[in-house]
Amino acid sequence: MKVEVLRIGQRVVRDDRVTTHVALVARAFGASKIYMNEVDPEIENTIKRMNKTWGGDFEVEFFEDWKKVLKSKIDDYKIVHLTMYGEKIDDVASDIRKNQNILIVVGAEKVPRTIYEKSDFNVSVANQPHSEISALAIVLDRLYKGKQFDMRFDNHARKIIPTKKGKKVVTK
Ligand code: SAM
Fold first, then answer.
1. What are φ and ψ of residue 169, in 5° steps?
2. Which is deepest, 47, 76, 154, 169, by most CB within 10 Å?
3. Distance from first CA to last CA of the chain, Å, rounded?
4. How many domains does the chain have?
5. Domain limits at 120?
6. Buried (b) or exposed (e) across 134-148, using 16+ Cβ within 10 A?
7. Residue-by-residue DSSP string for 56-107
8. 141: Cβ below 6 Å to ligand 1?
9. What are the residues whose beta carbons fall under 8 Å from the beta carbon of 153, sequence distance 6 or more?
10. 101 has which bridge partners?
11. How would you write the pLDDT of the chain (172 residues) with one tens digit per residue?
12. Strand (E) or helix (H) holding 42
């Protein structure tokens, strides 16, 4: 299963930190790429540094127009839009999982109506407002059933050895 993330709607509120955290969750929880715009280009360097230190090849791509990204994916991907108004994740996760390519769309402020219409799944994580960071984490966890935490991050410079106390990190 290949999962990518499209983060839309940054214009009104400059929330680079939230967008960075969306990208970090996407990377750590099994997605392979994030599309974003109108953010500090430094985010790309932050992610590159993460890959270099902790491994993996998670990608960041900046777009001019999210409609073009959506259009380029719509034939080969199932579009999963995260919204508090959607169907419950636990009711649709098994149907979503049947698909090879998945594009998860997360918003920042109000999401245009067309996203709801063009999406194959409008999915909620609790029908209550909260955050795109938490919604993305839960949805990726439900889709991968926790297996994402066994994912390998190849070509790392440093690797954490889980320990009961303290910090154990091996350097290549
Ligand atoms: N009021 C906004 C709206 O109408 O879309 C909500 C903005 S919320 C701060 C930002 C994003 O978080 C949403 O676009 C959605 O992707 C995600 N989100 C927030 N609560 C959610 C929930 N309960 N389930 C799924 N996604 C959620």
1. -130, 130
2. 47
3. 29
4. 1
5. 2-171
6. ebbbbbbbbbbeeee
7. ---EEEE-S-HHHHHHHHTTTSEEEEEEEEEEEHHHHHHHHHT-SEEEEEE-
8. no
9. 54, 55, 56
10. 2
11. 999 999 998 655 567 888 899 999 999 999 999 999 877 888 889 999 999 999 999 999 999 999 999 999 999 999 999 999 999 999 999 999 999 999 999 998 889 999 999 999 999 999 999 999 999 999 999 999 999 999 999 999 999 999 999 999 999 8
12. helix 42-54
| Mutational pocket test of ligand 1: of 12, 13, 83, the residue with most ligand atoms within 8 Å of the beta carbon | 83
The pair phi, psi for residue 101, each rounded to 5°, is -115, 130
Q: Which helix (H) or strand (E) holds 25?
A: helix 16-28
Can you say whether the dihedral through the CA atoms of 21, 131, 74, 64 is positive or negative? negative
**Ligand 1 in reach of 105 Cβ (< 6 A):** no
In DSSP terms, which residues pair with 169 in a beta bridge?
Answer: 160
Identity (one letter) of the amino acid at 11? R
Closest alpha carbon to 56 in 32, 22, 21, 24: 32
- Domain of residue 167, CATH code: 3.40.1280.10
**pTM for the full predicted model:** 0.94
